[in-house]
Amino acid sequence: MGSIMVESEVPGLADERVNILLVDDRPDKLLALETVLASLGQHLVLAHSGTEALRHLLKQEFALIVLDVSMPGMDGFELLREIRALGSDAGGSVPVIAMTALVTHADGRRILNAGFQAYLPKPFTPDRLVETIMTVLDD
Fold it and tell me: Which CATH number does the domain housing residue 35 bear?
């Protein structure tokens, strides 16, 4: 479990640090996300499973969650249902971005209909990741 905070280089987020929860079962993917998102200057919290993510949500507030849809055990769809079941007082209304491989138009509709605010088809560029996060945080 790790976190990183640096000075923000992204306009609009310099005034206020927020917590962003990153969820992926692959440590290498979490490290890549953390490295790319360090430029945002926000407090990044890492979770290696849906269960670990829920524990973090019960302990602190998050402005955003970025999660992998395909994880063993609790997948991203189940995790989203569990997050929404927490209710707004425990982070149940926090925006969630899905990361997923091989997205067809039907897959994209399914992801958005499930309640994700956005999705990132893998592979994605660092710029696309930051752009998506900034768009969701600005809404």
Answer: 3.40.50.2300
Residue 2 lies in a domain: no
Q: How confident is the model at residue 90 (pLDDT cuts 50, 70, 90)?
A: low
Contacts of 50 (CB under 8 A, 6+ apart): 23, 71, 73, 74, 75, 76, 78, 79, 82
The answer to the question of residue 9 being in a domain is: no
CA-nearest of 15, 5, 19, 3 to 94 is 19
Res. 20: pLDDT tops 50: yes
CA distance 89 to 73: 26
The reply to whether 117 falls in a domain is: yes
pLDDT of 15 reads 59
Domain assignment present for 5: no
Domain that includes residue 129, residue range: 19-138
pTM of the model: 0.87
Contact call for residues 5 and 42 (beta carbons, < 8 A): yes
The residue behind tokens 């696309």 is 128
Number of domains in the chain: 1
| Percent of all residues in the chain with a pLDDT value above 70, rounded to a whole number | 86
Question: Which residue, among 86, 36, 82, has the nearest Cα to 60 in the 3D structure?
Answer: 86
